[in-house]
Design brief:
It is a single chain. The chain contains four helices and three strands, in the order βββαααα. The protein has 167 residues and is mainly alpha-helical. It folds into two domains: 44 residues, no CATH class; 96 residues, no CATH class.
């Protein structure tokens, strides 16, 4: 028996899913799903950054495809929010199209992106224990509920009020 203490860095736990250091590529880690390596290697998180290494790892979608889609959904939601603002303030105008039609169109786009992001986030959260990406999926779900649900509610309110009257 060796008198040296057990070094967890040299013998990573390969029993469960998670980010594991690559022994053949120091400074890098890759997702191990419990039986095989998945995705591509990433640099290990900087221990001196503002985020803990665990949080930095959980913000990576890893091999979780739904989490990668949800991460793109966050960008889509923010862009659709900007589009709604530009249309509502008449910064964007299309000749021959009433402004209210542009507003409704922007709301429909934002609602579709928000619903798509919410669905991708839920799928990502279901796969997260096996494939990672829990934090980014949670962030995307929160973003889709806060910013993506508002256009859906506005469209429902407009529909319940009898639609938009031409004026």
């Amino acid at each position: 028996m060796s008198s040296e203490p057990f070094n967890d860095d040299l013998d990573p736990d390969r029993s469960g899913a998670g980010w594991q250091p690559l022994l053949d590529k120091p400074g890098y880690e890759q997702w191990y799903d419990g039986s095989e390596w998945r995705g591509r290697p990433h640099r290990e998180p900087d221990p001196f950054s503002a985020f803990t290494p665990e949080l930095a790892r959980s913000l990576r979608p890893g091999p979780n495809r739904a989490a990668r889609i949800a991460r793109l959904g966050i960008v889509g939601i923010l862009l659709s929010f900007v589009l709604q603002t530009l249309v509502a303030t008449s910064t964007i105008e299309v000749p021959g199209v009433e402004q209210i039609a542009l507003i409704i169109g922007a709301l429909v786009v934002a609602a579709a992106v928000g619903i798509g992001t919410a669905i991708a986030s839920i799928l990502a959260l279901r796969a997260a224990p096996r494939l990672g990406g829990r934090a980014i999926a949670s962030l995307a779900l929160g973003t889709s509920l806060l910013l993506g649900l508002a256009p859906v509610l506005l469209l429902v309110a407009i529909g319940l009020a009898g639609g938009v009257q031409a004026g």
